[in-house]
Write a structure and sequence with these properties.
Structural class: alpha/beta
Shape: globular
Order of helices and strands: HHHHEHEHEHEHHHEHEHEHEHEHHHHH
Number of strands: 9
Radius of gyration: 22 Å
Number of domains: 3
Bound molecules: S-adenosylmethionine, iron/sulfur cluster
Length: 474
């Protein structure tokens, strides 16, 4: 399909499609990963510089096991050096699975007659959110199929409803969205409703492959999807999450294309993606397995490469992956994971979904542990679970970039806010065993703030939380 800016009321040249297949293929074909070059590229990232497409291709093309291990070690070092040990937790909430598209890999596609369709009513959304709050969740991603019913007004209303629900000490402090691309007016509406990040995954950045997987419906328009974040920017929404669905096409191509997409956003708007997601295909109802399935080895390698290539961005890894892959990915700098995830509509608030029924869900998840089990494991491994939403509410946009570039930012804001939100979780929701581990870690983290007067300030706030105050942040 030809992309016509006028048709979508797009103002200027910035919004033209920017992926050049030949350019990406050239880098993949002609870049040689000799030892010195690989070491230089890793060092460039460790010096806190974003990598070019050519440099990223050097890492993608590296196959010598010793050099691949250096890439992995580089990502581990960058993570330790820059981000420390916080992990942000969230849950997806599927609001509606009606869909007019036919993505071959997805259980919700229109042609899948076995799919059981449902859209949550306001009362059902309320029950789901109360159940999520009872588990301790504070951050949600609302997820939708693409359907005329799920327009910007609907998403905006759901968002406002989600923020308004408060059960006990529970509340939702950040609502992110994963839904079809909107027009400029639509992005403006959801921005005004107070959404956090708007996530849209390009699925595959290769236009021919894209055509093959997306034969019908609005999603068949590659360019409309590719330029969605430009329209979001135009609408004042600069908090966007990009992604590719790994398994649809060559993984190296997708990694380079995401770096290209990042270049585009930086060059045009001076702000890169807030987050990058790299979902890997899992089974779905009546789905046909795509050709480019990515092995665990390549998958964890590509995560390490993404960390090095775009070192300032949040990396999200979901429960599509089994616990052991998630654990490895955390060491390479994944910064956000979901916990207690359920995909069946309405299943957080009912006893449904002991076993996944793929006719009622988008795809198979491979980590179905409860939020507390995920938190417990993080604590065991000395990660600091966080429900922090402070930057976004204090207007400190681009927080990942600040964490990365402003000296002392993490100790001044991220760690104390993680501690305060963990303290709330431990007091309100955690069983004794987790609570014990959590308070031990909090003590350790407080000492490592290396600033006695600030440490006292954080301790004072913890005391207030113990007395019943909530939602204290820096
Ligand atoms: N329907 C909207 C869209 O397609 O943009 C919202 C997103 S969809 C509900 C969430 C994402 O799930 C898709 O963008 C796709 O990357 C991913 N997905 C679809 N089928 C999948 C599968 N079988 N395994 C893993 N992820 C899948
Ligand atoms: Fe619909 Fe999204 Fe699934 Fe495609 S990925 S069939 S658009 S829900």
């Amino acid at each position: 399909m030809i992309f016509t800016p006028e048709k979508y009321k797009i103002k200027d040249e910035r919004m033209k499609p920017f992926i050049d297949v030949g350019e990406i293929e050239d880098y993949l074909k002609n870049t040689r990963p000799d030892r010195h070059r690989v070491i230089d590229v890793i060092q460039k990232s460790l010096d806190k510089n974003r990598l070019t497409m050519e440099e990223t291709a050097v890492l993608v093309n590296t196959t010598d096991p010793e050099l691949v291990e250096m890439i992995r070690e580089g990502a581990r070092e960058l993570k330790k050096k820059v981000y420390g040990n916080r992990i942000v937790l969230f849950a997806p909430l599927y609001v509606g699975n009606k869909c007019t598209n036919n993505c071959t890999y997805c259980g919700f596609r229109a042609a899948n007659k076995d799919a059981v369709r449902k859209t949550l009513t306001d009362d059902e959304i309320r029950s789901e959110i109360e159940a999520l709050q009872d588990n301790g969740q504070k951050r949600l991603v609302l997820v939708y199929g693409e359907h005329p019913e799920y327009d910007a007004d609907f998403i905006a209303r759901n968002t406002e409803l989600a923020y308004s629900i408060k059960k006990g000490n529970g509340e939702i402090r950040r609502v992110n969205i994963n839904a079809a691309p909107l027009d400029i007016e639509g992005f403006r509406k959801v921005h005004q409703a107070g959404i956090g990040t708007y996530q849209i995954f390009q699925e595959t950045y290769h236009p021919e492959a894209y055509k093959w997987y997306h034969k019908g419906g609005k999603k068949a328009n590659y360019d409309w999807r590719l330029t969605a974040f430009d329209r979001a920017q135009e609408a004042g929404l600069d908090d966007v999450g990009m992604g590719a669905l790994f398994g649809l096409y060559d993984w190296g191509f997708e990694v380079l294309a995401m770096v290209r997409h990042t270049n585009h956003l930086e060059a045009c708007y001076d702000v890169g993606p807030h987050t990058i997601s790299f979902p890997r295909i899992t089974a779905a109802s009546n789905y046909s397995r795509p050709e480019y399935m990515v092995s665990d080895e390549d998958f964890t390698k590509l995560i390490a490469i993404l960390r090095l290539a775009v070192p300032y961005t949040g990396l999200i890894l979901t429960a599509r992956e089994p616990a052991h892959i998630r654990a490895e990915a955390l060491s390479y700098g994944v910064s956000q994971i979901d916990g207690g995830t359920k995909l069946e509509l309405g299943s957080y608030s009912s006893a449904l979904n002991e076993e996944q029924d793929l006719n009622k869900e988008q795809f198979k998840i491979n980590d179905d542990r409860s939020l507390n089990d995920v938190i417990d494991e993080l604590l065991e491994k000395d990660f600091l679970p966080s429900f922090c939403t402070s930057c976004y509410r204090m207007g400190r946009t681009g927080e990942h970039f600040m964490e990365f570039s402003v000296p002392g930012f993490i100790k001044r804001f991220c760690t104390p806010n993680a501690i305060l939100t963990l303290a709330e979780y431990l007091l309100d929701y955690a069983p004794n065993d987790t609570s014990h581990k959590g308070w031990t870690l909090i003590e350790k983290e407080l000492k490592e703030l290396d600033n006695p007067s600030f440490e006292q300030e954080v301790r004072d706030r913890i005391e207030k939380i113990k007395q019943g105050e909530r939602d204290l942040y820096f």
